[in-house]
Each structure stands twice: as C-alpha cells, then as structure tokens.
Amino acid sequence: MKYFLWLLKAAIFFTLFAFALNNQQDAIVHFFFGTQWRAPLVLIVLAAFALGVIVGVLGMVPRWWKHRSAAQRATVPETNAATAASPQVPAPSTTRYCRSLRSMEFDLSWILLGLPVAFVLGWLASRFDLRQLRDENRRAPKAYFKGLNFLLNEQQDQAIDAFIEAVQNDPDTTELHFALGNLFRRRGEYNRAVRVHEHLLSRGDLSRVDRDRAQHALALDFLKAGLLDRAEDALRRLEGTPFEAQARVALLAIYERSRDWPQAMTITQKMQEAHQGDFSARQAHFLCEQAQAKSAHGDTEGAEALLQQAVRTAPQTARARIELARLKQRAGQSREALAMLMDLAEVAPVWLPLAVPLMVELSLATGEGARVFDLLRQRYEVMPSLDLLEGIVALDKVLGNAETAREWYVRHLEHEPSLVAAAKWLHDEKLEHEQFHPLVQRSLDQAAKPLTRYRCAACGFEARQHFWQCPGCQTWDSYPARRVEEL
Asked: What start-end ranges are recorded for coiled-coil regions in this protein (predicted)?
C-alpha cells in the first residue's frame, strides 16, 4: 500500500509537470497588493515544488530536534544482573522517538502529492486570466492579418480599423503602432499620426532603437502637415542617431522651402563632410539665390562676391556664370561679361543655349558678332538646338546676310523636323496666295507655341521660361536647356 501511494503521487506530479511543459502560454501568479508574476507554466510548477520542499523541510527541523533531544535524555536503568541478562525492553521515550520518525517519514512522502494539489488549486484560480490572455492572443494576430490583407488590397480605411482593433488587444506591440501611424500619415490624418507616435515616445519601456524610429516618424508627420518649425525641432533631435542622414535630408528640404539659404548651406556642408553625396552644385544655387537677394536690394558688390564664390564652388554650374555676366553687363563691363559666357561654352556647353540671347546682346555691344557667330555655329554642328539656331540667324542678319539668314531654318528642317523652325521660316516667306498667309501663320504659331516650353525631367511640369529649381517638385537642375520639341 505504501509503494502504491508513492507511485500514485509521483504519477500525479509528473502528469502535471508534462502538462506544464507542453503549455506554450504564460501563466500569471497573483500575490498580495496587486503584484503578479508572469512566466511559463513549467517554471511556475518547478518554483512551487522547490518552495514546497523547502517549507516542508524547514517545518520538520523543530520536530526532529525535539525528538532527538528527548532520545538523548532517555537512559536504560541497570539494576541487577538478572535484569541485565533478561531480554532488553525499549524505554518508553525510545519507543516514542521511533514512532515520531515513522510519522515524519509519512509526512515527507505526502509532500509530492500536496504540492501538485496546491498548484492545481492555484492554477484553477488563475484560469480566468489565462483564458483571457489566450483569447487576446488569438484576437491580436487575427486582427493584424486582417489589416494586412486590407492594406494589400489598398483598402486603407478597413486596414486602419483592423489595426486599431489589434492595438487595443495588444497595447504593447510597437510594430502595430508604427503601421497605424504610417497609415494615418498616408491618408492625410496627420493629427492622429502625431498622437500615435507621441504615445510611443511617452512609453518608458520603449527601446532606444524604437524611440529613434518613433522620433523620425513624428518628424515626418509634422513635415507632411506643413508644421515646419515643429518638424525642424523633431529632426534636430535625431542628431547622432541612425536616422541622422535622413533627418538632414528632411532639414534641407525645410530650409529650401522656407528659402533659408544660409541654413541650407550649413546643412549641405555637414552632409558633404559625412560623405552623403556631392552638394557643390546645390551650394552654388544657394549662393546665387543669396546674390539675387543682395542685387535686388542694391548691394552689387555683395552679389558679385557671392557669384564669384559660386563659380569657385562649382565651376561647371552655368547659372553662376550667366548671373555674373548679367551683373557685369548692368555694370557696363560688357567685355568681361562676354568672356564669362565664352568660357561657359568650354566648361558647360550643354547649358549654352540658355546664354544665347545675352551673348547676342553682348556681341552687339562689343563688336564681337563674328566671333560669337562662329562659336554658335560650331556648337550647333555638334549639338543642334533651336536656341542656337535663333542666335545664328540673328547674328547672320546683323553681319549683313539678311537674304540668306532664313536659309538656316531650311538647313535645320533637313536634319531635324521641327514645327517651330517651319513657323519661323514661314514668317518672312511670301506666299502665292498672300491673303491666306496670316491664317496659316497664326495656325502654325498656335500649334508651335506649346513646343517652345521647358519641361521638368523629374515631374514633367512645363513652363514658358527656364527654372533652375522646378516650381512643382522643387528639384534642382531638372529643366534641361532644350525645348519640349527637342526632347
């Protein structure tokens, strides 16, 4: 019977232990004053067993010490030889000590059964918490995958609702917060995106990586919402983080949008020192923008100094040379201005068509028409252009070849079919039926007018004049020095 009880108790214990080992959910043990311990079930079983053994052993120590002391005080009287020869009878105190040891052995054997029973009672008491935790864990992945399915189907409204449900089921999941905030930003609900990311930043248990990520997302929320001052403050806090490079790019966009050229110059210098790219051409544009502002306020010397610095910063940038030549022209230094543009033909010939009108004016002012004519003709043979063609025709007329100047349009049409060149040629041509000439000319001019525009290579925005920075997408040098018809 004794061994049967031992086997029964061991079977109960190991059954509960195997159940705990197979259970993948965490259990919660509640203590006093609202404290609790969340751990795998197997760890709780082992901890309860160890605690029970320790308590049982400590509880037996006083009893064992008491019976040991009583046994030591017990003595066997030796009165006479007859008594000594007779069979010895244990003393009453010794008998009680042996019975106590057997009772202690019995109590110790029941520890294996008592501890699992106590654990079962505690587990049943916390079963409600386990069931609730299990239900929440089932609902959270289901809502998450539902939201992901809506997102892949481009159903953002339903995806947001599903992610909100997932966040409510598992408030500690940071990835769901990031996904929800990004969805809000994409939909234009910047206030809700800001609240989500600010909630993440307010959590004390957030890791450093997630905190930097939330700070960057918050800065993007402010930037998309047009709150440039708050976006700038949020981006500056990303210095020294893995998002530092992205923050600098965003700061540069803010400074360009607000036309804060000195700050833009500073941030590009930092980016260039960090090997984020070559920003010399953009820095030259910043200097040209500052030079234009000084020139508008009458500070010609300051404007010229900035333009000279822009030429040194990016020698192949055409804008600085063209602006400097125009500034020298207004100052009466036509020869220096023409020399600046002649150098442009060698340094950046692709941008020469933009300087043709100014070159024609300067050649007339300096008497260098023949020299400029030869230069434009040489560049035209290498790279035909409508603007170069216009300059050649204008200078050929000035040089006394008005009769044959229009023949340049015919030569152009032989190699480059062009409605713009055809309209230019027809402008001075005498038709057999002269009464129809104005109608034909007006129709051609109307059809050719859109073809003389400039088009941004980045976003496709078309404009009648050339821009160094696209008004649509804010990209620098995205307008080529060619008309739409030539693209």
From this structure: none
Overall average pLDDT of the 230-247 stretch: 93
**0.85 exceeded by the pTM?**
no
Most confident of 74-78, 199-203, 321-325: 321-325
Band the pLDDT of 323: cuts 50, 70, 90. Answer: very high
Identify the three-state secondary structure at position 39.
strand
Binding-site residues for Fe cation, please?
Answer: 456, 459, 470, 473
Tell how strand 462-463 and strand 26-30 pair up. unpaired
Tokens coding 152 = 């892949």
Cβ proximity of 144 and 168 under 8 Å: no
pLDDT digits (tens, 9 = 90+) for 26-73: 444 444 444 444 545 555 555 566 565 565 556 566 666 666 666 666
> How far is 280 from 477, CA to CA, in rounded Å?
13
Contact 52, 118 (CB under 8 A): yes
Residue 102, CA distances (Å) to 42, 49, 53, 94, 106 in order: 33, 23, 18, 13, 6
User: pLDDT class for 85, splitting at 50, 70, 90?
Assistant: very low
| C-beta separation of 388 from 379 below 8 A | yes
Separation CA 257–CA 271 (nearest Å): 18
- Give the bridge partners for 30, in sequence order: 36
- Which residue ranges make up the annotated binding site? 456, 459, 470, 473
Q: Distance (Å, rounded) from C-alpha 349 to C-alpha 234?
A: 43
| Radius of gyration of the chain, Cα coordinates, nearest whole angstrom | 46
Domains in the chain (CATH in brackets) are 2-70+101-125 (no CATH), 172-277 (1.25.40.10)
Least confident of 3-7, 126-130, 147-151, 435-439: 126-130
Tell me how far apart the alpha carbons of residues 249 and 337 are, in angstroms, rounded to a whole number.
36
Structure tokens at 299: 């500070």
| Structure tokens belonging to residue 40 | 């795998």
Which DSSP string do the residues of 153-193 spell out, in sequence order?
A: TT-HHHHHHHHHHHHHH-TT-HHHHHHHHHHHHHHT-HHHH
Pair of tokens at residue 87? 């069979």
Alpha-helical runs (H) found in 280-436 = 280-296, 300-313, 318-330, 334-347, 352-366, 369-382, 386-398, 402-405, 407-415, 419-427
